[in-house]
Amino acid sequence: MCIRDSLNKMSDDAELGFSQLNENERKKVLVDYGGANVAKPLHVGHLRSAVIGETIKRLELKVGNTVISDVHLGDWGLQMGLIIEELKDRKPNLPYFDESFSGEYPTAPPFTITELEEIYPACLLYTSPSPRDSCASRMPSSACKKK
Description:
This protein is α+β, with helices and mostly antiparallel strands. The protein is 34% helix and 10% strand.
């Protein structure tokens, strides 16, 4: 049977070819999948794993399984560390970087979206493949600068 025939057969079936599992066959399924990376500009490629994960979740629900699902917003720990270090270099007088600061923090963000779009690519320069890999997330930013 070719794909066309299979799809035509599915389209004639209200259940699209899926049947409910018997009560004793049902399982609890955990679907853990990624979403967009919050530290990078969004593009259509970031949606792939979210679409695949959501599809698996819906198929499992369709056959009667109990589904627990979680969407992660990307691996943003390193990226946030890089952004913080770059921001510390650019704006060292911000109260967030003063360990002895005890007042109210500003309510306005310390940078604009336009600045963030420039900061992130700039800090990636410090993590290119070399002995300095990922040092910005572990060391003061001055130790990571290109020499």
